[in-house]
Specification:
alpha+beta; Creatine Amidinohydrolase, Chain A, domain 1; three-stranded antiparallel beta sheet
Length: 349
């Protein structure tokens, strides 16, 4: 895996353009994103990035790997927020910022008292447009996930529990090169598929019922996200077939509407209208249409009715309409999609 400083350089350009001389990053996802290194847990590392250097405050246990893989980071053997402040003061930083949406209370209060300036959401904004390296890693994660689906369907057997089927799918992804999970796999059989955030159980798979799986893996620190619903058995019910066709049509409609310069809320709102015009089904679509992803499984922009964001070429988003009939079944069809200048590209295909 090639590690790169391109995201730190991008941040340094942004800081200079906005007349800042540094920033502190303390949340795990932000640290992993800018460092291009996968720290294991929150509090394992923090960053202080100036216009010329990037300081990584971390534990000695990471030193060997960091020196080998991230020579662009200057290591500091400390995890005290006070030492970040002292380093900023020693460098005479006068206009150093921190992201109020990605900084805990203790660190944020200390930074503010010592002259750091608040700037909400800059980390998320810098993550929105993906670089070629990021796109390549997400493509790889998506390819692994989609290939795993074909293998999984051939190996799924009646009598397996949701937990057993989950283990099967996750092992297949790992065998194909997946480097961990993007999020906890959702494996829902029968009536459980009507719960979008179902918690996997010992419920056994029966013949002639729906299976919904929402899953993804990581590759190079980046996520994939895919949902498929299918009928396990010989002949799907007419009710299932009709709902599935509507969900797939809604997915294809949203894919056409997700264009550069379009409001991010537009595809969601149009899918709602589509469901309402085809059987008054809007009330059965109970979540947002999609979201971006990267080093985190949920990143801006989000495609829901509350957002005021605009879609851009280089965004990677999920498109995931669904219909959920409590006590019966649910259907969701989700792809991870790269928005292009002229044409979108489905990555989970």
């Amino acid at each position: 895996m090639k590690f790169t400083a391109e995201k730190i350089k991008k941040l340094q350009v942004w800081l200079k353009q906005n007349r800042f001389d540094g920033c502190a990053v303390t949340d795990l996802d932000g640290v992993n994103f800018f460092s291009d290194f996968c720290f294991a847990g929150q509090g394992d590392a923090y960053l202080l990035i100036t216009l010329k250097k990037a300081y990584c405050f971390t534990k000695k246990m990471y030193a060997v790997d960091l020196k080998k893989k991230t020579p662009y980071l200057t290591l500091v053997d400390s995890l005290y927020f006070e030492d970040i402040v002292k380093k900023a003061q020693s460098l005479k930083l006068k206009n150093c910022i921190f992201d109020t949406t990605a900084t805990g209370y203790i660190a944020g209060t200390l930074f503010y008292k010592n002259g750091f300036k608040e700037y909400a959401g800059f980390i998320g904004k810098l993550k929105e447009i993906k670089t070629e390296t990021e796109i390549a890693r997400i493509k790889k994660a998506c390819s692994i996930s989609f290939r795993a689906y074909d293998i999984f369907r051939k190996k799924l057997k009646a009598g397996m529990t949701e937990l057993e089927a989950t283990s099967l799918l996750e092992n297949i992804m790992q065998s194909l090169g997946g480097e961990g999970l993007a999020f906890n796999t959702i494996m829902a059989f029968g009536e459980n598929s009507a719960n979008p955030h179902h918690i996997n159980s010992n419920r056994k798979l029966k013949q002639n019922e729906p299976v919904l799986l929402d899953y993804g893996c990581r590759y190079g620190g980046y996520c994939s996200d895919i949902t498929r619903t299918f009928w396990f058995g010989k002949k799907p019910s007419g009710e299932f077939n009709k709902a599935y066709a509507l969900v797939k049509a809604a997915h294809d409609l949203a894919l056409k509407l997700a264009k550069p310069s379009a409001p991010a809320c537009l595809p969601h709102n149009c899918v709602c209208d589509f469901f309402e015009d085809n059987g008054k089904l809007k009330k059965y679509f109970i979540h947002g249409l999609g979201h971006s992803l990267g080093t985190a499984i949920h990143e801006p922009p989000f495609m829901n009715p509350r957002t005021d964001e605009i879609l851009k070429a280089g965004h990677i988003i999920t498109i995931e309409p669904g219909l959920y009939f409590e006590g019966k079944f649910g259907i969701r069809y989700e792809d991870t999609v790269l928005i292009g200048e002229d044409k979108n590209k489905i990555l989970t295909k």
